[in-house]
Design a protein that fits this description.
The chain has 14 helices and 12 strands. The longest helix is centred in the last third of the chain and has 15 residues. Helices cover about 35% and strands about 15% of the residues. It has 2 domains: about 150 residues, Rossmann fold (3-Layer(aba) Sandwich), CATH 3.40.50.2000; about 170 residues, Rossmann fold (3-Layer(aba) Sandwich), CATH 3.40.50. The strands form 2 sheets. Strands 2-1-3-4-5-6 form a 6-stranded parallel sheet. Strands 9-8-7-10-11-12 form a 6-stranded parallel sheet, with helices on both faces. Strand 5, helix 5 and strand 6 form a beta-alpha-beta unit. By secondary structure, the chain is an alpha/beta fold. About 0% of the residues have low confidence.
Length: about 350
């Protein structure tokens, strides 16, 4: 009988089961693919150490010691972001023969916004394989010393979308909208959404996400559109399904690539209108057939008005997107990585 390969996932895991983390989906997917999986939460708030009040620097050092002291010696160590990683820790983890993988869900070079740090850049060369969601970042990663870089899109966890949701009357009251946006407040996103309500004041707009209630005061044009904090799993699916149009805005670090909403919205059987990028419009999907895109304020308003009036065209793109997104499940994308098999 063939012994299962062992794999350690190092990622940010929530201590609150109601809060979704991408790392938890990787763990479940690896288990379905036949690995014996262990996990290490590098953002654990409390450690079994005699230090109770720790600075960020001391806490990160404690996390690194705890990770380095892992009793289990896996065949593969799969790191998801792990911005606490140092070059020294990378080499220490490889001493026992484990192959080291890194999937970085932000740009490893985005030092300006806190999504990366010098630790990350300086440790890149030590990983055996680096997975990245943007074709444009691949040459930069090789220039940073990486020996093997693989394109890996923001694949979605199909298990979160597999079961049928029965929408109740209360669900329709809570989630129904013409246009919906699910995501954290950012100034650029506020500008896009404010332009929508300024031009389309009677639109039923729904905004879900963290920080909006702190940034948008009573009297602001967007105030009445605020529905609540961040939503996950079934709640997020319901919001997508109950909206005629779901918006997706790209952060600067996503350049011409995509993000998780690119796949999550069509996976929910909902219609996506996304800020145009080369990957979304020409590589992952086909604009006008399986995705709708915009680039300017005027184009965004025009597309919203047009798709609200043309239900059949909206449903056609929705259906084609749902078929296309089946290629981008987490199980399917991980199974394609031949480097995991050897």
């Amino acid at each position: 009988m063939t012994q299962k390969r062992t794999l350690l996932v190092v990622g940010a895991l929530s201590e609150n089961p109601a809060v979704y983390t991408y790392a938890s989906s990787f763990i479940a997917s690896f288990e379905r693919l036949g690995f014996k999986v262990a996990s290490f939460n590098y953002r654990k708030k409390r450690l079994p150490l005699p230090i109770h009040t720790m600075t960020k620097k001391i806490h990160e050092a404690a996390i690194r010691r705890a990770l380095s002291a892992q009793v289990a010696k896996p065949d593969i160590i799969f790191c998801i972001k792990t911005e606490i990683m140092t070059s020294e820790l990378v080499h220490s983890l490889k001493k026992n023969g484990a192959r080291l993988f890194l999937f970085y869900p932000d740009s490893p070079f985005a030092l300006w916004n806190g999504n990366s740090c010098t630790n990350v850049v300086e440790s890149l060369h030590g990983f055996d394989h680096v997975l990245i969601w943007s074709h444009e970042l691949i040459p930069a990663l090789y220039s940073a010393g990486c020996s093997a870089v693989h394109y890996f899109p923001f694949a979605y966890d199909a298990q979160l979308f597999a079961h049928t949701l029965e929408l109740t009357d209360a669900d329709f009251v809570r989630y129904t909208s013409d246009v919906c946006f699910v995501g954290t407040w950012e100034p650029e996103r506020e500008q896009w959404l404010t332009a929508i309500v300024d031009r389309l004041p009677h639109l039923n707009l729904a905004i879900w996400g963290n920080e909006w209630n702190h940034k948008i005061a009573a009297g602001h044009p967007l105030f009445k559109a605020l529905r609540g904090k961040a939503i996950y799993k079934d709640e997020m699916r319901k919001a997508f399904m109950c909206s005629k149009i779901n918006l997706n805005f790209m952060r600067k670090q996503n350049i011409q690539a995509h993000n998780m909403r690119t796949f999550e919205v069509p996976a929910a059987g909902a219609f996506l209108l996304s800020q145009r990028t080369h990957e979304q419009a020409y590589m992952l999907f086909e604009e006008g057939t399986s995705i709708a895109c915009f680039a300017t304020f005027d184009e965004l308003i025009q597309k919203i008005e047009w798709f609200l009036l043309h239900e059949q065209e909206r449903l056609f793109i929705l259906q084609q997107a749902f078929l296309r997104v089946q290629y981008f499940t987490l199980d399917a994308q991980l199974a394609k990585l031949e480097t995991l098999r050897f």
